[in-house]
Amino acid sequence: MTALAAPSPAPKAPQSTRYLKTCCDECGWTARVTRKHLEGRSLRCPDEYCDGRLEQVR
Which whole number is the average pLDDT over 25-29? Predict the structure, then answer.
């Protein structure tokens, strides 16, 4: 009697990041934030001399 080999497990899909890349529309400063921080909010650039807003980079 021949033993049957167990089926090999399916390869795991790569894990995606939970952070979204954002960039200041004025100075180009880059940050990564969670989706929760972007929902319904307008994030300001942390540079005190810049008056820009952080927008998600596609």
Answer: 95
The beta-carbon contacts of 2-6 under 8 Å, at least 24 apart in sequence, are none
For residue 19, give the DSSP letter.
Answer: E
Per-chain mean pLDDT for the chain = 87
Do 24 and 47 touch, CB atoms closer than 8 A? yes
Tokens read off for 51: 């008056």
**Tokens matching residue 20:** 């979204």
- 27 touches 50 (CB < 8 A): yes
Is the distance from CB of 52 to CB of 43 less than 8 angstroms? no
DSSP of 26-47: TT--EEEEEHHHHTT--EEPS-
- CB-based contact 22:53 (threshold 8 Å): no
